[in-house]
Amino acid sequence: MSQQETHGFQTEVKQLLNLMIHSLYSNKEIFLRELVSNAADAADKLRYEALTNDALYEGDGELRVRISTDKEKGTVTIEDNGIGMTRDGVIEHLGTIAKSGTADFFKNLSGDESKDSQLIGQFGVGFYSSFIVADKVTVRTRAAGHAKDEGVQWESAGEGDFTVDTIVKETRGTQIVLHLREEEKEFADDYRLRSIITKYSDHISVPVEMWEEGTPAIEATEEQEAVAATEGQWQSMNKATALWTRNKSDVSKEEYEEFYKHISHDFTDPLLWSHNRVEGKQEYTSLLYIPSKAPWDMWNRDRKHGLKLFVQRVFVMDDAEQFMPSYLRFVQGLIDSNDLPLNVSREILQDNKVTTALRTAVTKRVLGMLEKLAKNDAEKYQTFWAEFGQVLKEGPAEDMVNKERIAGLLRFASTHTEDAAPTVSLADYVSRMQEGQSKIYYIVADSHEAAANSPHLELLRKKGIEVVLMSERIDEWLINHLTEFDGKQLHSVTRGDLELGDLEDAGEKEAQEKLETESEGLVKRIKDSLGEKVSAVKVTTRLTDTPACVVAGEGEMSTQMIKLMEAAGQAVPESKPTFEINPEHPLVARLNDEQDEALFTQWSDLLLQQAQLSEKGSLADPSAFIKLMNEMLLAKLK
């Protein structure tokens, strides 16, 4: 019994369809790559499901994709005998974009068609690419193992809605009929389609077939022998061998790039890749890609990530995240193992020595790829860092074993370059360390400008000591897990003691001790006037041009960590700063001479709030600060 229903597309789908129809004018032929890719995936999934239920083959185990055209009707048909879809599956997969991050994607659209078409490439379009060339698409499908009368027909003109109907379909799998627009009839040409398949789908491991017309019989003549008639037949247009099973020397750069687009549904070429076959105790093949662009949903916690898993060339699962740590979630590719059981399940993958060994090996392979890139092509590595650097910063917390290697891949800004671009590695920093310097000095602030202009850097600048400038939200969290590099401790310049060690000469130390002794009375007066607002008042060793600063005491949370905790909704224990003063600054010298205790308290409070504003970028009560500032200005003007 027919059950036709009409459904409306999600708003995002309508926007995406409209955008694709009008934007992808320069890359129309990719519709065939996307649809053939999906059809091949459907064949892979059936092959895996049939391992435990042979009846799903329904007597036909020869999996393939077939493409045909009808010039008169102006249609192109892509048909597979793969896993197929149920009615609910059709509504879910063809009526919605089953990919997170859609809101971010549409937020980034500019209205410039050429730019927006590049954004689509990072987003992935799959089935919806049909509407680049078609003004109507008809899908007929039946899930393997379901009755013939449980077939489903889906149809849409790519505008506001689509219809779903129950039909009888004799064979399992999916048939997609594209009703081409008048201006896209070139794609109904047999030769045109063959050239596209050869270009985009040669690497696909199931046969992609097109119909080869037969030839009539030719009778014998004096000049020519008789030729028997040949019947028409389906002929494979691709090699139909899994690309990763071939020798590296036999695979061209173009084939590697097309295979990447097949598995990632990305339009852009990958940045680099590594193809390796490992034999011995473990036998497996890995083909790993580093993309050139980050997907829009990189930071979405629910985003699917991981490699495709094959066992003895049989597809087992997508998104096998067990083989790739989360901080490398941008890596695309596959693993084909000979050591895992074919009926592998997620439970087995959770606790399996082979899985752990594969994960370790693949992680090292990716880190090696990145180290090689950083060493041989710094400019290309900066391209990678701009896209994925913040994700890589999760590594030291997640992967203790490879912490030092990951640290070597990190890039920061520093006072050496005075440039906001993060181009400095920790190895670069160590190579420039001064004689007697035992620590790597760094500062974490809300922005590069705040870090570069922080008063905490004054003494270090004067001494020519380089400071790493960090200004990303993740940096404070990173530093809590990355405490040293190459045997050198990382030390925050906003912490209580700068710990300059051998960088501080005897004369400076003596002068500092003398200043502290001479300022004991002033320090006590300020502490008494500020009371509970500060934990301690000290004479600073780090300021030259600024009257005062606040620092975090030993064992206390830094300002940036407090902000990070608060942003995550965590309760933060109340902490009072250590207030450091510079007695040689004219304002502090003037304060020391102030006899009026009320004025002395106001000046002390003003200097404290200035220091807190400089450190935090904000104050708990900015209006009180402005009121105090105005009062002091008026008093000065009288």
UniProtKB/TrEMBL annotation:
SMART domains: HATPase_c
Signal peptide limits: none
Primary location class: cytoplasm
Xref: CDD domains: HATPase_Hsp90-like (cd16927)
Coiled coil ranges: none
Subcellular compartments: Cytoplasm
Record family assignment: Belongs to the heat shock protein 90 family.
Quaternary structure and partners: Homodimer.
Record protein name field: Chaperone protein HtpG
Gene name tied to this protein: htpG
